[in-house]
Amino acid sequence: MKHFLNELISAGNRRKNFFLLLVVLVSSAMLQAQNVAVSGIVKDVTGEPLPGVNIMEKGTTNGTITDVDGKFTLSVKGTNAVLTVSFVGYAPQEISVKGKRNLDVTLKEDTELLDEVVVVGYATQKKATVAAAVSSVNNKDLARSTSTSAANALVGKVSGITARQKSGQPGTSTNLEIRNMGTPLYVIDGIMKDETAFNALDIHDIENVSILKDGAAAIYGVKAANGVVLITTKTGKKGQKPQINLNAHMGWQGWTKYPELLNAYQWKWGNYMKQANDGNLTGADNIANAKADLEKWRTGYYNPATGEDYRGYDWKDNFVSNSAPQYYVNANISGGTEKTDYYISVGHIDQDAVFKEYNYNRTNLQANFNMQLTDKLKVGFQTLGKIEQNVNPALPGGDDYFQMRNSIFNLIPTMRPYANDNPDYLNYISPTHDGARNMAAYTIDNAGKHQKDFRTIQLSANLEYKTPLPGLTAKGLLSYYYETLHQTDNEKSWNEYRYDPATQEYKVASTKTDTYRGDVRNHKVEMMGQFTLNYDHIFAKDHHVTAVAGFEFFKEDRKYLTVAQSPVENPFVENITTNANNTVSNSVRTITTASFIFRAGYSYKEKYIIDFAGRYDASWRFLPGNQWGFFPSVSGAWRLSEEEFYKDSKVADWISSIKLRASYGEMGDDMAKNFNSSYPDFAYLPGYAFNNGGAIISSNPLGNGQDAYTTGTAYKGIPQTGLSWMKISMMNVGFDMGFLNDRLKLEVDFFKRKRSGIPATPTDIIYPYEAGYSVQRQNLNSDQVSGIDGMVKWNDRVNDFNYFVGVNLTLARQKTINNYGEVFLNGWDQYRWGQANRWSNVKNGAVWMWETIGVFQTQEEIDNYPVNIDGANNVNLRPGDLIFKDVNGDGLIDDYDKRPLGYAATDYDWDSGNANKNPLLSMGINLGFEYKGIDFAADFAGGFMNTFIGDWHVKYGIGTDQMGYVYNVVDSWQHEDIFDTKSPWKRGKFPAVRSNNPSIRDWNDFYAKEINYLRLRNLVVGYTLPVKWTKKALIQKLRVYFEGSNLLCWDSLNDFGFDPEISSVTGFDYPQHKVYTVGVNVTF
């Protein structure tokens, strides 16, 4: 070669060789520009070939996909070409050819990368270097659920979450809390929202959810007192060809559990037994008539000619469906170029309730666009939209679902829905217990229509600029949100009939006249702006410094307008006409907040980590001078497993990672989320309250025949100038460990949150009654929540078999620390009513009740029992009645024998006095596997250490106008001959059915059951067809699956037959749905 070059540049050959050199250079350039065939194979991290992977030459439309063996061949332009390799569920890669002819590519699952990076306050961090208590769950785990609610999909999948789904009514969701501290703050793509916005998200649009459980939430300030849920939605990937995903399923729903109700014969039998036990069924003729009547109900005797009808009717079976349909479809497209990416998604859910003509439907729209305008400037735009609708019959009382549940229980089975079974004529049924009416009347055509339309749109834009200073980035975010609610109610009148078999006529027996028409219109506008400077730089390879500083503002405007008319003047005109029956109310509200935020972090060799964060918040609720509050936090971690001495030890062979963590944070709470809270708007200002007290009525003042009235006005009272922030401190200590190369992971956290300055009215200050003022509330009380949460998960692969199993637990309990001004006359009063330093007391949700120590077996035992149980020397007791413990030993059962039994509430509302009563202990179990296209997963969620206290129908059995449950009537103590009270007693589980039974006269633990349950929330079995079967149809992935929700539940309420998560003491709640679903996932 050297000789050849010398010849080229030798003097004698310069002219001739110039042309030769030119030919060589041109030939080389032509060779560089020629197409080059590149082959290769694409595998996953286990070495398994991946079929159907996209292989694209960057900057062109030239591409191909891998075959069934993961192999590909692509002709590219030149040896310097760059290939983009992408596949659904995996992180894309860019690979430079650099003269290579054969490539070996390994793709890593997207979920693995997501697990490595978590979202924290105004930043993202590698999970390994996070010092705070943060739990996260990715889309793959969320999307296993076919629930209509994001909160429902999250239950049982992450530690720190405590939950209770009190109602399965369509459109409702689980009551989600972090460590039983109350409703958390939700932040969606950097924008603070509420739980309604979170539950409105389409599950398939969510990329990742992070839970900030400790003091690190302080960076979100006043709204973060109960923790923060951070949601990141999906975006496209740069350089990825357009990818279309279709997710669709349909399901059939029915109630999980509902107590067995009495049939007609059982109901009549129970009522006769009750009359006999009460001594109200005596005399041979009366007993004979009762027996004859009962025999007809047993046989279902029916004579149309005479109108005698002893056929029973099962209201629940006829009006509650076991296969109510549910439909869902989501279509999204994602992709990108070298400088842009996009994700556009549309989803729709249509869900019927188990009641006819009750429907909930929702349509979601999401669009995310990002553009790299220059090397330093990046912009993004997002649109989120929702259209939601509820439609059902309009029923009296305002809660249309309650009226259905109430009627199911209280309509007795001896009644039938239609006169002479003619569906054109509603049968007259006298309103029974709690006003239950004929359910056949509860249709839209007959009763009227309730419709609620809820629409939202959110537009946001973000900007990111890399400044000339290395590591410093300026970010901006602006958001506009508009929400509108339009609700119309039109309650109509209807007739009910009786049929006369003699004349064969249908005669009007009753007319419902309480008509109502209402129109509600609510509007809300939110505007949010955020500007931050973000710094992220590594010095000398080992020193990683991060910082965030910024400003945030928020403004909300709300308008409410309600117009109603009752009774309705013209039932045939939908407009609400002007007359004296009208009521009009409206309100206008504006909220404005401003905040300064900062965050600073440092790590050395990713071994020693410390983070500082803080927020300076302002609230309009307080007197100037008290409006601003500063809320700091600090967290630190030591990754022991990164120390050289540890890496060299034998322990590292089986304990692959150890991280020790601790954090502390301070926050404030102005309770702004509750409009009727301890902090009313501008309570520090003097003024007057309008529409207060009574009214002055004038008779026909305008001469138009109508009276007029003027409402009262009163002075608001002494301004509340002493109120300020409720102060909250949160402490957390925890550790993370990995075993056997992190195949087994363990996370444990110990925590305590203390709230001080809880508003209360001083009891040692008294104003004269004549002053007309109330004592102002002050920041006086305190409480705490403490506990432990953690998770353990095993994830491994054996050849083609990939499997996982995990368990998470959260135990959190509330305690009152201080209750200002408690003064008691004696020790009993202090024990009974004191709240300070109590884990469990009446104010915190435990109920004072009698303790049951047995059941009377014979009348002789009652006669000789030394303790007066019924207050009448036991003359009212019968065998089967309960024996209560004489705690104080005075020989009399009264209030002094009651004790706080059951578990205390976990989220006590100091304003309303209501106790939420989530389980103290929550648990989740997740397991599954994948094997050659087959996938299986099961998610369990459980709650323990909670109390159900049955009342009313649970205890009282039945009445002449009241339905009953089978268990407390059929399985009650009863005489062998129910008509003969002298016949021997037959033992049962429940006391005898009779009026004024001493066993049910007050709270006792016989009807209080500890709630422990473990529910199979989701069971999924799927199969992904081989690509070689689908590629001819241009389908990259095709998966079919079956999913069951709430298929099984092991619980401690079998005696009552209730769903263990309901909250009603009567069992009237709408239970959760058991759902059978079939679905398909398609990727083009």
Number of strands: 52
- Give the low-confidence spans: 1-33, 906-915
Q: How large is the radius of gyration?
A: 35 Å
Shape: globular
Structural class: mainly beta
Strand share of the residues? 35-45%
Helix content: 10-25%
Under the CATH scheme, the architecture of the domain at 2-108 is Sandwich
CATH top level assignment of the domain at 2-108: Mainly Beta
Overall pLDDT metric:
85
Termini gap: 54 Å
Domain TonB-dependent receptor plug: 127-228
Family: Belongs to the TonB-dependent receptor family.
Signal peptide: 1-33
GO molecular function: siderophore uptake transmembrane transporter activity
Topology (elements, then pairings):
Blueprint: H1 2-9, H2 14-33, E1 35-43, E2 54-57, E3 63-65, E4 71-77, E5 82-86, E6 93-96, E7 102-106, H3 110-116, E8 117-120, E9 123-126, E10 134-138, H4 139-142, H5 150-154, E11 161-164, E12 175-178, E13 185-188, E14 191-193, H6 195-199, E15 206-212, E16 228-233, E17 243-255, H7 264-277, H8 284-299, E18 302-303, E19 308-309, H9 315-319, E20 324-336, E21 340-352, E22 359-372, E23 377-393, H10 400-410, H11 444-447, E24 448-466, E25 472-491, E26 494-500, E27 505-512, E28 516-539, E29 543-565, E30 582-604, E31 608-618, E32 628-638, H12 644-647, E33 655-669, E34 688-689, E35 695-698, E36 708-711, E37 714-715, E38 726-739, E39 744-760, E40 778-798, E41 801-818, H13 827-833, E42 847-849, E43 852-855, H14 859-863, E44 882-884, E45 899-901, E46 921-931, E47 934-949, H15 953-956, H16 967-970, E48 974-975, E49 985-986, E50 1008-1024, H17 1027-1030, E51 1037-1051, E52 1073-1083
Parallel strand pairs: 1-7, 13-16
Antiparallel strand pairs: 1-4, 2-3, 2-5, 5-6, 8-9, 10-15, 11-12, 13-14, 15-16, 17-20, 17-52, 18-19, 20-21, 21-22, 22-23, 23-24, 24-25, 25-28, 26-27, 28-29, 29-30, 30-31, 31-32, 32-33, 33-38, 34-37, 35-36, 38-39, 39-40, 40-41, 41-46, 42-45, 43-44, 46-47, 47-50, 48-49, 50-51, 51-52
Helix pairs in contact: 7-8
